[in-house]
Amino acid sequence: MNEAYGPLAEWFEYLNDDCDYASWSQYFIEGLRSLRAGSSGLELGCGSGAFCRALTRAGFRMEGADLSFAMLTKAEELSREEGLRISFFQADAAALKVPHRYDFILSPNDCFNYIPPKKLPSAFAHIAKALEKDGIFWLDISSEYKLRHKVADNISADDREDVTYLSFNSLSEDRVEMDVTLFVKRKDGSFDRFDEHHTQYIHREEDISAALRKAGFSVIRTEGHLGEPKERSDRLNLICRKQ
Fold this sequence. Notes:
The N and C termini lie far apart (43 Å). The mean pLDDT is 96. Helices cover 28% and strands 35% of the residues. It contains seven helices and eleven strands. With 243 residues, the chain is an alpha/beta fold. The strands form two sheets. It has a seven-stranded mixed sheet, sandwiched between helices. A four-stranded antiparallel sheet has the order 6-7-8-9, covered by helices on one side.
């Protein structure tokens, strides 16, 4: 059994082509500009770098960090294909260490769902140290509603010509355990099988807000996906400023 985002890294953006990265990226771009967040940013938990690339094209000076070496390799490959010069480095979001400070840190698309609740205060304290004075921290996670009522005790599947994705999800108190299987087609028509295990933690908004305040952040606003009402939204965005 592979760790999360090993073999899946090669297929992640391809399998998520229905999430409308263009609109999602524009939501972040417009939000950061409205906050006058500055130009130097880090995408924490960047995965294969979709948002890094979009923000770079929009004029931000972006870097990307992720724990998965496979994801970073894919991020560098896709950036080169677009002719973009983006620095990527390996880092643990729970104990972030960075080469310099940033105007803003964006952590989109579930990065902090992989961090246990007990590690949030320390993680946010490390992020505060990585930001300039008045820096912005934008946290985007799968909501408690989504994980408990849509993902948990369910099966996710995506069957395509060249790859099949299956995820068997089970609820366990404050987390969802996910057993992911990929079947990847070879040139001869046979398939390779890859298995990964993912654990996503369910974070309550009040617990995250308390941990952010303890780390020295003020929460400017909270909202659902693309700014929609947070009630029954699949995503929760917490937009914060370092005090």
